[in-house]
Amino acid sequence: MVACPCSEHHDTRRMVLTGGPGAGKTAVLEIVRRSLCEHVRVLPEAASIVFGGGFPREDDPQCRRAAQLAIFHVQRQLEATGDAHNAAIVLCDRGTVDGLAYWPASAEDFWASTGTTLEAELERYDAVVHLRTPAAEQGYNRQNPVRIESAAAAAEIDARILRIWAPHPRRHLVEASGDFLDKAAATLAILRHELPECCAHHVRSALPEVGR
Ligand SMILES: [Zn+2]
Ligand SMILES: [Zn+2]
């Protein structure tokens, strides 16, 4: 985070960075953290907290439901912490509706189990950035130990996430390209556009040195 002298009150905008497995979200978020001012608050990924914390990751429907409900509620409460510090932007690493892409039953069942609706959940977010998962030949990344999906399954999840967020009125798609720095630059441009004027002139004008 870049220190920011802004002391204005911010109307916090909640945004989501989503995408299928292997889309490069984690690396892009690292660049966002280093490039934008301290009033852009990046939340951790609920699934990583839940599974990284030892929640059983089993493939049977009952365990998948339990895991997705745990992730849903962790996400809700992460967002509550994000609202607490006069952030200009709270950037969520996926949102509450992403769980539907991993749900072992119907969408109706997901909404009944979470006690909400797609419309209500989409309204939680001012804007959405979807990083597309690269096809296998474009360098799908399996280095994250929490990722166990194959490239084909990852593409399928990416397509599901794409459909789930489709009704959102302010969704930006960042297509999979060979170079993740292009994705990072595209994501930063979207975020800079969302930053209020009071903070916008404090953000760095160039990407930091990363792997080049
Ligand atoms: Zn500001
Ligand atoms: Zn700021």
In words, what does this structure look like?
The protein is globular, with a radius of gyration of 17 Å. 41% of the residues lie in helices and 11% in strands. The protein has one domain: 3-Layer(aba) Sandwich (Rossmann fold). It is an alpha/beta fold.
Structure characteristics:
binds zinc ion, alpha/beta, 212 residues, five-stranded parallel sheet, Rossmann fold, single chain
CATH architectural grouping: 3-Layer(aba) Sandwich
> What is the typical, i.e. mean, pLDDT?
89
**Which structural class best describes the helix and strand composition?**
alpha/beta
Strand content: 5-15%
Q: Which term fits the overall shape?
A: globular
- Please trace the helix and strand order, writing H or E for each element: EHEHHEHHEHEHH
Spatial strand sequence of the major β-sheet: 2-3-1-4-5
User: Roughly how much helix do the residues carry, as a percent range?
Assistant: 40-55%
Give me the Rg, rounded. Answer: 17 Å
Question: Would you state the CATH class?
Answer: Alpha Beta
Number of E-type strands: 5
Main sheet summary: 5 strands, parallel
What is the CATH homology-level superfamily? P-loop containing nucleotide triphosphate hydrolases
In the CATH scheme, what's the topology name? Answer: Rossmann fold
Bound molecules: zinc ion
Topology:
Blueprint (H helix, E strand, L loop, with lengths): L12 E7 L5 H11 L4 E3 L3 H7 L8 H22 L6 E5 L13 H8 L3 H5 L4 E5 L19 H15 L5 E4 L5 H15 L2 H4 L12
Parallel strand pairs: 1-3, 1-4, 2-3, 4-5
